[in-house]
Amino acid sequence: MLLRELTGGLDDPATIPAPLTRDRVVDWLTENGFSYFVDSEGDVGGLWHGWLFYFLIVGDGSEVLQVRGQWHRDLTIERLEEVLELCNEWNAERIWPKTYVRVRDNGAVLVYTEVTVDLEHGVTDDQLDQLLQCGLTTGSMFFEHLDETYPDPLRSAP
Q1: Cβ pair 112, 69 in contact under 8 A
Q2: What is one Pfam family matched by this protein (predicted)?
Q3: What is the DSSP-derived secondary structure letter of residue 78?
Q4: How far apart are CA 79 and CA 144, in angstroms?
Q5: Are strands 98-103 and 37-38 parallel, antiparallel or unpaired?
Q6: CATH code given to domain 2-151
Q7: Edge-to-edge strand ranges of the sheet holding 98-103
Q8: What pTM was computed for the model?
Q9: pLDDT tens digits, 104-139
């Protein structure tokens, strides 16, 4: 009754926050015509413009949404300092996405983006749509920036 009063009497289920679930993320992907996969650990992912994105549900109560992207190329360890600076500049100037790197044992530097939101109190369909779009869009913007900064030598004529 209180919820009805607070929402102006709207009884539309889409306006009432519901728990975050993997099924809701998969439904959103399907409704928007995106191709996706579910890996062996049950995580949902897909490719957008050649970049790998995962839609993770984490937290003790599966209440945290994380849209994590991975750039389609890796860098050599000699580029670590400059790519860290690039990530730090991006993070200082923008709210989303958080950008960071990981160094593999072989010295390859991988670059990631991440939009993480705690949805402990639930999320409406419109909010979920906005958060998933935000993760994909802002992650893609950063990856485009990386592509401009580090052009693929195989994409230009010799």
Answers
A1: yes
A2: YbjN
A3: G
A4: 18
A5: unpaired
A6: 3.30.1460.70
A7: 37-38, 44-48, 51-58, 64-70, 109-118, 98-103
A8: 0.88
A9: 999 999 999 999 999 999 999 999 999 999 999 999
Taking residue 56's Cβ as centre, other Cβ atoms within 10 Å add up to 20
Helices (H) and strands (E) in the chain, counts: 4, 6
The angle at the Cα of 65, spanning 135 to 16, to the nearest 5 degrees, equals: 105
DSSP 92-145: HH-SS-EEEEEE-TTS-EEEEEEEEEE-TT-B-HHHHHHHHHHHHHHHHHHHHH
Fill in the DSSP letter of residue 51.
E
Domain segments of the chain: what residues? 2-151
**pLDDT tens track for 18-61:** 999 999 999 999 999 999 999 999 999 999 999 999 999 999 99
Query: Token digits for 2?
Result: 């209180």
**Quick one: tokens of 36?**
């996706």
Which residue's structure tokens are 């191709």?
A: 35
Query: 């390859």: which residue's tokens?
Result: 108
Helix (H, G, I), strand (E, B) or coil at 47: strand
